[in-house]
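Run log, item B.
One chain of 176 residues. Sequence copied directly from the ordering sheet:
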Amino acid sequence: MLLPLLQIAIVSALLVYFGKWRGNMRRRNTQSWDSLLCQLRSDWSARDLSEQFLWKEGLTATTDDIWQRLDGPRGLWAIYQNARVLLEMADYANRNMIPGSNPIDPMVLETLRSDAMQIRLCVLMALAQYALSQATEGVKVNAFRAANIYSGMAARMTALLQDHAAVVLPDFVAAM
């Protein structure tokens, strides 16, 4: 008696999950550029991470400097959220490419997806470590790693928009 009820509960939960997932995908595919820009965290800017943040990859600061510039866990969480938005922006640029222009290299999109996943893992590890032991060296190293990958992702996104959607580039630069 218990097994059939458990099976029904599991199947129901899976159906609800897939229904929500499909709805989220539909919502994501119909978003406008302006709605994506509005999702970027406006209370924190990554411009402090590097002098030429959007135009050049890499950081020129120490782990302690980056931790200070991130404003600790607040900046880490902003990076976590912005990584998802940057990925959605890349997908938007790919879906709404100017007709007749060169297609976006699939490796660039895959690199951006990989960057977003690495950023999110580094941030979650750093936040978990921070919750257990405050700002130790391990937390700062993971924060530096996340900020470094984020810097590279933002530079690649800027280059992608410059090449394939130059019309929206000024809005992107202003929002970052």
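Observations after the first pass:
- The CA atoms of residues 47 and 53 lie 6 Å apart.
- Helices lie at 2-29, 33-39, 63-70, 73-95, 106-133, 137-164, 169-175.
Flagged for discussion on Thursday.
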